[in-house]
Amino acid sequence: MLSFSSRTYGLLAVSLLPHFLACQTSPPPVARSVSVVPDSLRYALPYDLGQPLRAIELPEGLSETSGIAYAGEGHLALIEDEHGRIYRYDIRGDSLEGVYPFGEDRDYEGIEVRGDTAWVLQSKGRLFQVAHFASDSAREEKIDLGLNEDMDFEGLSWGPGGRLLILAKEPPRLPNDEKDKAWRVAYAWPGPVSEPYVRIHTPEVAAFLQYYPAAGGALRDFDPEKTGSIKPSGIGIHPTDGHIYVIASAGSLLVVLSPDQRVVAVHPLPRELFPQPEGLCFGPDGTLYIASEGRGGPGRLLVFSPPKP
Fold it and tell me: What is the mean pLDDT of the segment spanning 206-211?
């Protein structure tokens, strides 16, 4: 299993791009027996998802918020799923600082930022690298990752070694083109995208909820054979403990994986707070930000500060 102990994050070298753009067919994840972690290994979530520190109504234009990234020094970068615009939001001042067009109107679902460069994920599995995104000299470059666009990609996050984790909403495809309902996956780039890099085993989620019924509440009827039971929409790596957080809008839940990718926590996301959770990110101190579409109302940003040690 992979380890998330590395914390070296850097800008992606443009010179590497040609080596990773060949279209590849992804084999199904390897079979795995279903197991449940013992109580001693369960993850104690350092956030109370029912009690955000702040609940912010986002400005007009962000009712369809689909992706969020920490952009440094108390700022977030957000996108919505209809227009090629990056929104820079000042968390401390609770104000929209700027809106920066970068490309054609497409279904954009994820964003990450390093310095003055942004990477934006299209649902078809394409990346758009936008250099100097907040200036008049912004430059957009499209990167076709060779992923199966029918998997509907919705989440983007920095992973180990400065790679981007690209989260799929739909299960991977088997050789006969049927969905492998037992898995939800994320790929890593740069690097060969011939096989998933992060794997959520849905029977393991179901087993966890059955063994620890209080953990899931209304999720106790989770069915691993139904793709609608969980459709991931956002991913992030906790900056201090390396756990992998995945939220799902369809299913309205948070799944936490250990660094060795075992299901160690499952939490419902209350609909009254999270109408349609679409993106998450962490601040360097562990502050958790979750963005939600408004579903007919304003988009919503929820801020959760971890308890003090």
Answer: 92
Question: Rg of the chain over CA atoms, in angstroms?
Answer: 18
Q: What is the token pair recorded at 136?
A: 């008049």
pLDDT digits (tens, 9 = 90+) for 151-168: 999 999 999 889 999 999
Q: Burial letters for 257-276: b for 16+ Cβ neighbours within 10 Å, e otherwise?
A: bbbebbbbbbbbbeeebbbb
pLDDT score of 31: 61
For domain 53-304, the CATH architecture is 6 Propeller (2.120)
pLDDT of amino acid 23: 40
Per-residue pLDDT tens over the stretch 234-263: 999 999 999 999 999 888 899 999 999 999
- Which 3 state secondary structure label does DSSP give 213? helix
Of 261, 194, 204, 195, the closest CA to residue 230 belongs to: 204
Half-sphere exposure of 67 (CA within 13 A, CB side): 32
Q: What does the block give as tokens for 201?
A: 């085993």
Q: Which H or E run contains 231?
A: strand 231-237
Residue 300's identity, in one-letter code, is R
Q: What HEC string does 157-206 produce? A: EECHHHCEEEEECCCCECCCCCECCCEEEEEEECCCCCCCCEEEEHHHHH
